[in-house]
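Dear support,

I submitted the protein below through the web form. The confirmation email said the job was done, but the results page showed an empty box. After a refresh the structure appeared. I'm attaching both so you can tell me whether what I see now is the final result or a partial one.
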Amino acid sequence: MKYRAEIDGLRTIAILPVILFHAGLSVFQGGYVGVDIFFVISGYLITSILLREIGKNDFSILRFYERRIRRVLPALFVMMAATVPPAFLLLLPNELTAYGKSLIAVPAFVSNFLFWSERGYFGAAAELKPLVHTWSLAVEEQFYIFFPPLLAFLAARGRGLLRAVLVVLFLISLAASWYLTRLHFETGFYLPFSRIWELLTGAFCALFLARNPGFAGTAGTALSGLGLALIVYAILAFSNSTVFPGVAALVPVMGTAMIILSRAEGNLVHRLLSTKAFVAIGLISYSLYLWHQPIFAWLRHMGYEGYAAPLASLPLVFLMSWLSYRFVETPIRRNRAISRKRIFTAAALGSAAFMAIGAVIVLNRGFENRYDPRDIAIMRQFSTISAYSETRYNAAQFRPFDASGRRKVVIAGDSHARDFYNMLLEAGLDDRYQFSTKRINAECGNLFVNRDLSQYISALREERCRVMGRLDNPQMQAILEQADEVWLDARWFDWVVDLLPETIVNLEKTYGVKVRVFGPKHFGNTSLSDALDIPIDERPGYRQPADPYFVDINEHMRRVVPAPYLTELLDPFCQGDHTACRLFTDDGSIVTIDGGHLTEAGAKFLAPTLRQLIEDTP
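What the results page shows now:
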């Protein structure tokens, strides 16, 4: 291929916003689109190389994967190795265990599935993961498992069939991206099905330029200018509330394609991207991508919050990236004295080594035995919370009522309702009541109203709320018709609270049920590290105030929800004073993992109070 300096400059446009976004600069709130730019560039460059080889009858799948290993693994392995010592020094056992899982997933190129299962790309949880950025490498390599042989197979049967098949794959992937992102943001963001079309966009650019010179003159200048404008718009205008990737990803993806298709070497965009500064940064962009996230993550684990520390560390990021490019990437890519056999052997051994280290970490629970047994007990409360909090509530969803004579109760709500249900069972109230549950996410509105709620719901969650349904879910109708009571619990929002009186009236009128609304609970914001910082002997007597948000919501519910329908939990659960809530039980077990969600010990600790509240309610 003829070298195109502006492509390296385009890499700079991709990497700098990603770094500044991960640093926490709000002006680059859409900087994550840099990954999409990389996808298009990758699809273009690799397809161009493959088409040239296929055209010369010189295509070799082994040579292709050798090139990929030389390009990707050496710098990746050096970065991963450098993260191991800080991980042992800075991470708590649960964090170290999660890190161990990522050491297993990254060399297997399935880290996107791992981080998808852990949920979340935006926010503090992701910022603390040193290897979270490797998800995009996994997506690329998953694409390149099937694409080269497919391209070779189709190209041998004519360009018409090749274009047709790739267009169909493009449209299927774009449709999947649109739907999955609206249904479940994290699925659309992490999984390859909704990202393939971006790599195929680059492939289409390569197919076009293989037989055409590209757009020159005024058309090329306009095209490249518009392309750069689209990219800059996405970087500055998109945010974590943008429905992305989905259709929104067309903006940076098409912008990148326009620049690639513009071959007018004298136009302004070309001259800008071809400057020495842009090209120099673009050349080390892969190493920059590798090194910035772990450095930022370690700074945050050391207690540096905000964007000041990440920005101050940029010279270190650039230094490590240049060293990686100069002494790792370039020598191994260009040194043909290193045979293919040695490259594949080194890749296999390196992958096995990291997987082994990760397995040892996971099997030893992050080496939790370094800690006091009472601290280990708290750590295990955090690590087992999901299985405890979700299992019984999910099993009871849409459960039919029986003829046992116990009161028939529908419980509707989110993760706070799951806590509520667990407390009911720990209190033994299933001896008087039989329960059927309905999951309704808090942002969807735990309501039964005949009105359009889209004005209140984020576009990211609108489709998910529609599919999930509320109490008007068809599966719930027959159960509601048999129910004696409906109990509503959730992490309440002001707009939902405002519609609760209408919900109560509608449920009573439609189903003749008794309605109870349970207020918020909270025990003060906390985390595992916060809990472990409290001296062991002081934990049973430790007190802290509930988060002001939940105090305000509780007051709002007092004003809006008619008193006979409302059962408050905030003060009763804090022994009458929400400014002094217990975080630990008498034996030092922790009540909550974050202030709002209960551990098993917390549910058992609060169960007698909840039983008393329900028995005292007529």
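Response: this is the final, complete result; the empty box was a page-load delay. Residues 381-616 form a domain with the Rossmann fold fold (CATH 3.40.50).
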